Amino acid sequence: MIRIPAATRPRTVLAYLIRRLGAVLLMVLVVLLTTFSIFFLLPKWAGQDTAVLFAGKATGAEQLEGIRQKLGLDEPVLVQFWDFVKGIPMGRDYANGGDVTRCDAPCFGYSFRTEEPVWDTLKDALPVTGALAAGACVMWLVGGVAIGVLSALRRGSVWDRSAMVGALSGVSMPIFFTGMVMMGIFVHSLGWLKIDDDLSGADGIDIWLQSLILPWIALAFLYAAMYARLTRATMLEVLGEDYIRTARAKGLGEPSVIRKHALRSAMTPILTVFGLDLGALLGGAVLTEQTFGLKGLGFEAVDAISNKDLPVILGVTLIAALAIAVANLVVDIMYAVIDPRVRLS
Amino acid sequence: MTQLSKSGAAVGEPGTPDSHAPTAFLEVRDLKVHFPTDDGLVKSVDGLSFTLEKGKTLGIVGESGSGKSVTSLGIMGLHTTGQYGKRKARLSGEIWLDGKELLTARPEEVRKLRGREMSMIFQDPLSALHPYYSIGKQIVEAYRVHHDVDKKTARRRAIEMLDRVGIPQPDKRVDSYPHEFSGGMRQRAMIAMSLVNNPELLIADEPTTALDVTVQAQILDLIRDLQKEFGSAVIVITHDLGVVAELADDLLVMYGGRCVERGPAEKVFYEPRHPYTWGLLGSMPRLDRDQTDRLIPVKGSPPSLINIPSGCAFNPRCPYADLPKDNLTRTVRPELTEVGSAHWAACHLSPEQREQIWTEEIAPKL
């Protein structure tokens, strides 16, 4: 048993945060290194010339040489990696003799296909996926936890049984199916909602909401179902704990017992799974964006992969990894806020 | 009024004194706690009666599954609250606390009594305290449920209580979490929490079982001191006769959900009149006993509470089951009979047989 005097606790929390932040930076670096090397090596393994991917097959040997020079493809891998990493905060010059192209920071290179800066694509796609993911997270957390708690409190009731059957079907139904059915009903048949291509919010908040509400529900449905089941199981376990009996023995009313004592404990495993799910969220986002035609990161990723547009794939992967790392950092902080014992280890 | 009937008009209405209302501070009459299960009805407590006055301590002794804890949770009304889809316990009988009948009272009334008039200390303070809240917060919560005061006042009260139960630097430790406390300190904190509202009835359910031996005596001393100070009625539940021997004024020995012997502590301890109590005494390590003597365990295992043996529940394990005539031990359930002043035992052995077995066989070995 480690006993920490109360006076040193703030430092423990700070140390915890610093440790977590360090872990996140390390993770980003590892992701950077692996993705870069993989995307550098892939064309090589496939017997393809990166310069050809960039310029197209019909290009002459002299031109290809120029492209290699300009993109720095003739440099050693590590130098290329360093130039790439440095380009993100500092910007970068692509030069072939006197022919210089300035890529402003944050520079992720240029798309092979459109020859636009990758950052322009990311800049437009990130808010779409961000809004989609954030809205869906809130929906599934609130919805899933609420349904789970109610099911646990009414175990064996009609409500519990139907909620769990609903959850089971939710888990089994793929996003593109629920998405298409909802779109068919609410957009095409009833005409209640309109889905707009432009999700920058320029067309007004109501259009923005209308365009996102169905993708939110489609993406959140699957997760909400899982979280309802998880919450129910956790709550049933927590409600059997001794400290719940203590809370009742104090004379606390049942609502306080549930909210302050049971739910607080049940949040820990839910948060753990939430941290993991954030990482897997991009997969769900790809399907949702494809189904609803939203131009988010997932959409761009699929587009880039089918076109072998290496810089875009690299950029999307990095941004997604960074987002997941930051989200996990937030989850870790919440973890420490909820459970005082976490701050020790 | 042996059933939990709501039709009983004014009889048993909370706070309404009637002809049934007892004079004792706490009176339990024919308490039964049954749990329906898929395998049958579990009769955890099956007809238990006792009384307890303020300022007195009752020790309830018995092995696991004898119904001790179920009884205490029954008094606290914790069987009927928050069962969430589990099949509820069936309680019948009467529990009178300070003139109020608890089994027929509305749950909300009983909730208001919990923590204020009656409170409880649990066996394992680590699992009984919420791991995510500081000790202070948990005590403050217990205080503010029943007192309309601001957090500052409640915090002062919590520090005062921590100081009272002997926690050093209470103004600092009030912000510690349960995992930062040692086992003994946690139990002290638990006691502070249960006494924060000056309850008139304190139930300590195996208060020292989860603690180091060195700490056990301290906790028992603390309970005794606090009782003197607060003048509350205390029920100490334990499987360890040694724990209650010094603490309790009265002892109640439970077996298979029923009382087999009860009386003043020194009587039950020094002149026990039930074979099961003899067994308990023989299986207890004692410092004043010759080292060469071995402990004598009670043979067999506790009875199934679904199929309680017919006749005396103890008969399959009782070495003297064949002594009474007509196979009485296996057919007729013995009732409590007075075997001395305020000393009761439920056994078919005749007073002479008991006297003889005690003086010739049991007492010399103890």
Automatic annotation (TrEMBL), chain B:
One of its GO terms (molecular function) is ATP binding. The keyword Membrane applies. InterPro entries: AAA+_ATPase, ABC_Ni/Peptide_Import, ABC_transporter-like_ATP-bd, ABC_transporter-like_CS, Oligopep_ABC_C, P-loop_NTPase. It is a peripheral membrane protein. It is found in: Cell membrane. Residues 28-281 form the ABC transporter domain. Keywords: ATP-binding, Cell membrane, Membrane, Nucleotide-binding, Transport. CDD domains: ABC_NikE_OppD_transporters. Residues 1-22 are annotated as: Disordered. Belongs to the ABC transporter superfamily. This is ABC transporter ATP-binding protein. It comes from Streptomyces physcomitrii.
